Amino acid sequence: xxxxxxxxxxxxxxxxxxxxxxxxxxxxxxxxxxxxxxxxxxxxxxxxxxxxxxxxxxxxxxxxxxxxxxxxxxxxxxxxxxxxxxxxxxxxxxxxxxxxxxxxxxxxxxxxxxxxxxxxxxxxxxxxxxxxxxxxxxxxxxxxxxxxxxxxx
Length: 153
Prior knowledge:
The chain is an alpha/beta fold.
């Protein structure tokens, strides 16, 4: 049975996911690993080495439900309420940056792939790009992600 919400969702063609650059990976490592006190990797060097071996995979909505720490917001309003709780709000993430991300997907402009970590036991966790993934799904796009295997389980 088709849900009314699914019928109302906007659907776009998006084909412009790009692999994160070295500078982008370093920035994400600093923010998502060091500042948050994680120990998925022993060093930035280990993270970058794992990133060199990363795979690009498309994540379906059913696969997304098995990725830890995903928010799964279903509307722009819900996503805005979520980002208002981020430390980066409003300096780096705000209503304008959110709208820009929606527009970039709608107009097929390049956007860094979200980064998902995969642990030795096969479990996965969002590392960077939760907002990008939520927007993609809201617009009917299955995102391509940069899947990095962790050094430490």
